[in-house]
Design goal:
single chain, eight-stranded mixed beta sheet, 18% strand
Amino acid sequence: MSQFESFNITCRDGYSLSARFYNAQAGQKHSCPILICPATGITKQFYNSFAHWLSLQGYDVLVFDFRGIGDSLHGPLSKSKASIVQWGQLDIPAAIDTLLHKTRASKVILLGHSAGGQLLGIVPNYDKVAKVVAVSGSTGHVKGLKGRTKLLAPIMFKGIFPIARHTLGYGPTNAIGMGENLPKDVAREWAQFCSKPGYVMNAIGKTVHEDFHHAIQIPITALWASDDEIATQANVKDLLRLYPNADADMIELKPAQYGHKGIGHMLMFKKSHQNLWPVMEQQCRI
């Protein structure tokens, strides 16, 4: 028997997203289902083990591929018109409504990984979210980066992406170990949003004309690892300041405390680090 149900989500503009639904397996089901929103260039398969584990804890769970990524890429990548702004304005809202329809719940818990936890301020139906758990969530501001990523990001944003936009027609992130290759506008916006503090706030008044950051008053918890080169303390704080009326909290995870050599930006969802899963799940409770 499959751990999940595969289906498609239809967004307001007609775009189809590939999704998986994990039905709660425990006897006592939690009232709020969990929507897992992926990181930039990361597919739903990456979260499979974690999503199944959440279902065993009594949660209905939905995870999907953003447009232009994984099974939500339709046609050649170079022809994709997907953007990060569309992820926030169209994809996440459709996923929220779909999960509520499937579960008959009134609100969802949004568990976002990196970019997946950074876009609620431009999500029109933000009022259907009861709580946000932003795993490795930050603005990714280049000046707040650390280590190898601090050196690599300017090369990628100012050199590789602009050149590849015209030569390849997409952002070649797979070759440098940063997930799936990206639609050109996703790559462009990623570079633009991280070049200044505030991430998606850099699009307000340009490609985004509805800003809900100040209206959001729900709990937002950012979980970040001390060895994360992207979601550093400075960049996590930069994200949470965008929600002045939210009940915001930061939780730092130190690898040694959990018996790991490292956690970084990606490892929290790996089976090798599943002793961190109860920490994430605890923050999802209402």
